[in-house]
Write a structure and sequence with these properties.
- This protein is an alpha/beta fold and 198 residues long.
- The chain folds into 3 domains: 1-32; 35-114; 134-198, no CATH class.
- The protein has 7 helices and 4 strands, in the order ααβαβββαααα.
- The chain has helices spanning 2-30, 36-47, 59-75, 114-133, 139-145, 161-173, 186-197, and strands spanning 51-55, 83-89, 95-98, 104-109.
- Strands 1-2-4-3 form a 4-stranded mixed sheet, with helices on one face.
- A hairpin with a 5-residue loop joins β3 (95-98) and β4.
- The protein is elongated.
Length: 198
């Protein structure tokens, strides 16, 4: 009788260890990082972008930047039909490039400074929106422009109207908007929301 209890206990322990091993194995597989190619595909879908390239950036660093963009796109919808290319470059700043017609691209810095990467992404997408919608040529922009206090947005916003618009998009798209960042006055917010959300 005691032998039966001992064998039963051993069997239970073996089954428990097997079940634990299977669970740990499944959990490890679930946490395996995606391939760079899969991550690129997910970012292309999230941003409605056709091309992602890297400019001398190691795969591990490109992966880090793309993973951040993907996470950021889950809290804010960046889909824009005229954003065609993202370049991750060994640069210390973002850059917007208008090639020809409606083919546009943004260059994002290869950085682990998450707030700066977040800002760069939103600012450069602001330029894309401005370029393809001619936002600064609109009646709404002309009506509110004279009421915009550039200093309340950023120092860089005072450089010119092109940078001002991009800064306003980045400001409005920030997760801190309405919290630590004061909201725009009603008419200005309405104008920015039109281009950002429509």
């Amino acid at each position: 009788m005691n032998n039966v209890i001992i064998h039963g206990t051993r069997l239970s322990a073996i089954l428990f260890l097997l079940a634990t091993g299977i669970m740990l194995s499944l959990n490890a597989k679930a946490q395996e990082p995606k391939s760079l190619a899969l991550l690129e595909t997910e970012v292309k879908e999230a941003l409605n972008c056709s091309f992602i390239t890297t400019d001398g950036v190691p795969d591990s660093e490109a992966y880090h930047v793309l993973d951040f963009i993907l996470q950021d796109s889950k809290t804010f919808n960046f889909r824009h039909p005229y954003l065609r290319k993202i370049v991750i470059a060994n640069a210390d700043r973002g850059e917007y490039i208008s090639n020809s017609g409606y083919f546009t691209e943004i260059q994002l810095p290869n950085t682990r400074d998450m707030p700066f990467l977040d800002y760069s992404l939103k600012h450069e997408i602001g330029h894309v929106i401005d370029h393809v919608t001619d936002a600064r040529g609109s009646k709404e922009w002309k009506a509110v422009r004279k009421h915009i206090d550039t200093k309340s947005i950023s120092t860089y916003a005072g450089k010119n109207d092109e940078e001002l618009f991009a800064e306003m998009i980045a400001y409005r798209a920030s997760q801190e908007y309405g919290k630590t960042l004061a909201p725009f006055p009603g008419d200005i917010e309405k104008m920015i929301n039109k281009y950002l959300f429509n």
